[in-house]
From TrEMBL:
This is NHLP bacteriocin export ABC transporter permease/ATPase subunit. Coiled coil: none annotated. InterPro entries: AAA+_ATPase (IPR003593), ABC1_TM_dom (IPR011527), ABC1_TM_sf (IPR036640), ABC_transporter-like_ATP-bd (IPR003439), ABC_transporter-like_CS (IPR017871), NHPM_micro_ABC2 (IPR022515), P-loop_NTPase (IPR027417), Type_1_exporter (IPR039421). It comes from Acetobacterium paludosum. PANTHER family: ATP-BINDING CASSETTE SUB-FAMILY B, ATP-BINDING CASSETTE SUB-FAMILY B MEMBER 6. One of its GO terms (molecular function) is cysteine-type peptidase activity. The keyword Membrane applies. Residues 172-448 form the ABC transmembrane type-1 domain.
Length: 716
């Protein structure tokens, strides 16, 4: 056994060092691995696609890899990247769609890597790289989304991460575009200098006519360059948009405690921050590259004609740039304040919309509107100030070049200079100062993403609830053990749970009751891993929740919380969710278990009936039945209900209770109704964070203690 484990360890080390090798693919659960690392089509293709996108691939443990589950899904989860199924339409290979993992009709995985904007190479596990054409028949295809780093990253590191998504040929294309555009910008100045100094005095009309045609060609070329620049911007925006997916992925990986720090509206704005950032950067970075080329080329040209005027131009331009930067800095200060106020207002608006029924019941619409309008007015005041600065910035780009030209005209008027040189300097200086001010404005725009980045930074710096060092559990039993649990929501705060110890055996039905504020829902949040104990340990299926991948544990739980909600969509998607293996017959069987099948059959659209929280399509009891059906859809090992049957009538309550008895699962419920807990194997009484009484219903009634008083109030 020890020898086998050592061989497995060596295999994994060999993969991590080479990053080119892989384990063989299991096409069916019955097939066992029998080939070398180099012979694996799937993982070899995944590695090639991931390398092209700068994603580090990690191989799952052998036990998990050969468990019969989808190997591609397991590798993606272990490596931390997301993927999406895509459809490869006709002539897809003639466009750059990024690296793609695909499967042939025979089920063999291949890596499709773009070799140019209009060509793809098909790389197989055998090392072949063939040109892709219309003869290649593929079935499924997937694109990858790289994850954000799990540790906090600086703005500079985020820029580097974005730069990795842009291919080298894109950078080269931008530089070539900038150089060509800069050289073209010189041609009108050179042509006018020669025309006024040589051709016009010598009456060379034919030469002048030819130059005219050349200048027209230059104008057309600049138009084409502008079009190419726009296409380049769109291409880079498409590449950088991948970061927006990564940001949302990072948000979904954060612990539940993170979401209590911000309102939903504010988080929505923070989560879409990269979309704004990538638009600003993609446009202005290219603008900076091109305008830099314009400024350098035309600046040297002015110096080559007249060094004195060159120094004057430099000094005037430096002054203009300085004034522009001051305005830009003031503008960024307003933007930072505006973003914060917008976050607060968005959170408030979302809360008002979701609470509109409660506002109407309380007659508080006017107070709610007054609160919103005051905050909105303050935000608009800041935006108005920022708008004035923007207008001033635009005015400066028009006024400053004109003032600078006046100074140069004055210098020329008192000094001797040829007409051709003057016209050339005039033309070059206009391009020079306009480009330099455009460069400064682009720089200001790039700096404006810093407040946007700061807005998204809490998500970027957030620590995911699961790290790579935690154990990946297999299938668990329903045993639950809590030892000496103590919990406070914050350091130095009141103790919510104090020295709580509970043991629940697999298949046991346990109820937790207690007065409001006794810690029942907090106990459930701890069992789900939403909160971390201050002291003590929690074990599910023999695994300590602190050292295990809690996501894998949750997949084997069926949970209905007090605030659980339906997903906007139809009844079928609400119950089946992402469980593709569930058929409509399975869903009908689940509805029968919760006593709702007949009600759904009577609806005109049946399982396709659209539902949503607050829509009024379903009653409170019907919503709870759907939530229960969804919770037991995956045949969980552990079931947690927090007031999950509070809105059910007695008949429905009985049907649900009978169905729960037939499940091979541990059940822990929080309830107040006696009818819910009468059949429990044990009842735990929680009082001020302590378990004060424990036993069956009959035992507790005989004790005539806490539970007896609690039950007596309902029996009266």
């Amino acid at each position: 056994m020890a020898k086998k484990l050592e061989e497995m360890r060596q295999l994994k080390e060999k993969y991590e060092k080479s990053a080119k090798k892989a384990f063989d693919k299991v096409l069916s659960p019955k097939k066992t691995p029998s080939v070398t690392l180099e012979d694996n089509p799937l993982i070899s293709a995944v590695v090639k696609v991931a390398e092209a996108m700068g994603i580090a691939v990690k191989i799952p443990p052998l036990r998990k890899l050969y468990s019969g589950e989808n190997q591609f899904k397991l590798i993606a989860e272990e490596s931390g990247f997301r993927y999406r199924l895509v459809e490869l339409k006709d002539d897809w290979y003639k466009k750059d769609n990024g690296p793609i993992l695909a499967f042939t009709k025979e089920g063999v995985a291949v890596a499709l890597i773009p070799s140019s904007p209009t060509r793809y190479k098909c790389k197989t596990y055998e090392g072949e790289a063939k040109e892709v054409d219309g003869s290649l028949e593929l079935s499924d295809a997937y694109v990858f989304y790289p994850p954000l780093p799990k540790e906090p990253v600086s703005f500079r590191e985020m820029v580097k991460l974005g730069a990795k998504l842009i291919q080298r040929r894109d950078f080269i294309g931008m530089i070539v575009l900038a150089v060509a555009a800069a050289l073209l910008s010189l041609l009108p100045s050179i042509a006018m200098q020669q025309a006024f100094n040589v051709w016009i005095p010598q009456n060379q009309s034919i030469t002048i006519l030819v130059v005219g045609f050349i200048l027209v060609a230059v104008a057309v070329s600049r138009g084409l360059f502008t079009m190419v620049q726009s296409l380049c911007i769109l291409r880079i925006q498409g590449k950088l948009s991948i970061l927006q997916n990564s940001l949302l992925d990072k948000l979904l990986s954060l612990p539940a405690s993170f979401f209590k720090q911000y309102s939903s509206g504010a988080l929505a704005l923070r989560a879409t921050g990269f979309a704004t950032i990538q638009k600003i950067l993609s446009v202005n970075v290219i603008t900076m590259i091109i305008t830099t080329g314009f400024s350098i080329v035309n600046g040297f040209y002015i110096f080559s004609i007249n060094a004195t005027i060159g120094f004057i131009a430099m000094g005037l331009t430096a002054l203009s740039v300085f004034l522009t930067l001051i305005i830009g800095k003031m503008q960024m200060k307003c933007q930072r304040k505006s973003i914060k106020m917008t976050n607060d207002i968005s959170g408030m608006v979302l809360e008002l919309i979701t609470s509109v029924s409660r506002l109407r019941v309380a007659g508080a619409e006017s107070r709610a509107y007054l609160k919103w309008v005051n905050d909105y007015a303050a935000q608009r005041e800041v935006e108005y100030k920022r708008g004035k600065l923007t207008a001033l910035l635009r005015l400066s780009t028009i006024a400053l070049p004109t003032l600078c030209m006046c100074v140069i005209y004055y210098y020329v008027s008192i000094n001797s200079i040829s007409p051709g040189d003057f016209v050339a300097i005039n033309s070059a200086f206009v391009v020079f100062i306009s480009s330099l001010l455009g460069l400064v404005q682009a720089l200001i725009a790039v700096n404006s993403v810093i407040p946007q980045y700061e807005n998204t930074k809490p998500i970027i710096d957030g620590v995911p609830e699961v790290d790579s060092f935690k154990t990946t559990p297999g299938k668990i039993l329903g045993d639950i053990e809590i030892t000496h649990l103590r919990f406070c929501y914050y350091e130095g705060g009141p103790t919510i749970l104090d020295n709580v110890s509970i043991t629940v055996r697999h298949g046991e039905y346990v109820a937790v009751i207690g007065a409001s504020g006794s810690g029942k829902s907090t106990l459930l949040r701890l069992l789900l891993g939403f909160e971390k104990p201050t002291n003590g340990n929690i074990y599910c299926g023999g695994y300590d929740l602190e050292s295990v991948d809690i996501r894998e544990i949750r997949k084997q739980m069926g949970v209905v919380l007090q605030d659980s909600q339906l997903i906007p969509g139809d009844i079928l998607s609400n119950i089946a969710g992402s469980k593709k293996e569930l058929t409509e017959d399975d869903v009908w069987e689940l509805l029968k278990k919760v006593g709702m099948d007949e009600e759904i059959r009577e609806m005109p659209m049946g399982l396709k009936t659209m539902v949503a929280e607050g829509a009024g399509t379903l009653s409170g009891g019907q919503r709870q039945k759907l939530l229960i059906a969804r919770a037991i859809a995956a045949t969980p090992a552990i079931i947690f209900f927090d007031e999950a049957t509070s809105a059910l009538d007695n008949r429905s309550q009985k049907i649900v209770s009978e169905s729960m008895k037939n499940l091979d699962a541990t059940r822990l419920v929080i309830a107040h109704r006696l009818s819910t807990i009468l059949d429990c194997d044990r009842i735990l009484v929680l009082e001020k964070g302590n378990i004060v009484e424990e036993g069956s219903y009959e035992e507790l009634m005989k004790n005539k203690s806490y539970f007896y008083k609690y039950a007596k109030r309902q029996l009266l």
